[in-house]
Design brief:
Low-confidence stretches: none
Mean pLDDT: 90
Structural class: alpha+beta
Radius of gyration: 22 Å
Helix content: 25-40%
Number of strands: 9
Number of helices: 10
Distance between the termini: 16 Å
Shape: elongated
Largest sheet: 9 strands, antiparallel
Length: 288
């Protein structure tokens, strides 16, 4: 898997002056577009589109400082229809416009080329199982919230605090399918997985019962799910679990992620600082 990812990185490098087709990258990496975006974001710590933009502006920055070509010619070569559009993109990465950079020889930001390598640590094993599930329904309270990669998500905290405890307990009694109990469900995530992009968050249960008044319903089609378990401090243990699944488990196993909601069930300690977590991710076999 890592070898094919590096071949995709080679493709990006040879097409920085063209539109980088994610479908071609996915074929090069022998996986789906969805899984490629998800894997790249987890491994690189940034969305694939952001990496391409930074690399393109890094190479363009060298051309700008070289001073051999008009700025408009450089803009056109890197796919910008006008000098203004190129200047905006250049400034977003480097913090200075291309004209000023050329006049003053300003220090620019460089995005190194990424190469993926396997680091063997083996400090702990990951507990998981893969299960096939028929279609099911999530029922609960819903909000559109920003994606937060580390630390508390205040929008989710506000939603949960606003739910009447008695109403939530009534909802809990409707849970009749795995994972049992109240679950956190993230759906309709932006493909880039960029910090601050929005997603649908449900705080509810998996049930065959009708959705009570005032709640939202999410119908989930049948498919395979990888189920991971972990325990530790909140929220760090859960966020580390999410990261390790994509940086360690997927590269080592013949599965890839597929579109669908991501489901998390947590059981908090009495003081609320520790949790046992069970993470459900939709998957399919590679080549399936």
């Amino acid at each position: 898997m890592l070898e094919r990812l590096n071949q995709a990185m080679d493709h990006i490098e040879s097409h920085l002056d063209q539109v980088v087709d994610v479908a071609v990258l996915a074929r090069t990496a022998a996986t789906s577009e969805y899984h490629l975006r998800r894997m790249f974001s987890a491994l690189a710590g940034m969305p694939l589109s952001e990496y391409v933009r930074r690399r393109r502006m890094t190479v363009a920055g060298a051309d700008v400082l070289a001073g051999r070509e008009p700025l408009l010619a450089i803009a056109v070569r890197y796919g910008y229809g006008s000098g203004e559009a190129f200047a905006r993109a250049f400034r977003a990465v480097h913090g200075v416009g291309p004209g000023e950079a050329r006049r003053t020889g300003a220090a620019l930001v460089s995005q190194p080329r990424l190469t993926f390598r396997l680091t063997v640590e083996g400090s702990s094993s990951m507990r998981y199982r893969v299960v096939d599930r028929p279609d099911f329904t999530v029922v609960g309270f819903k909000a559109r919230v920003p994606l937060v990669h580390s630390g508390p998500n205040q929008a989710i905290i506000d939603l949960v605090r606003g739910i009447d405890p008695g109403v939530l307990e009534d909802l809990r009694t409707l849970a009749d399918q795995e994972p049992l109990g109240v679950v956190a469900v993230c759906d309709d995530l932006d493909p880039s997985r960029a910090e601050g992009t929005e997603l649908d968050y449900y705080h509810g249960v998996i049930t065959s019962a009708q959705a009570p008044e005032g709640t939202a319903r999410l119908d989930v089609p049948a498919g395979a799910w990888a189920v991971f378990t972990a325990s530790g401090p909140v929220p760090e243990a859960i966020q580390v679990l999410w990261r390790d699944v994509f940086t360690e488990w997927f590269p080592a196993n013949p599965y890839r992620s597929r579109p669908g909601p991501e489901i998390l069930r947590t059981r908090l300690s009495a003081d609320g600082t520790e949790a046992e977590a069970e993470l459900w991710l939709p998957v399919e076999r590679e080549g399936g």
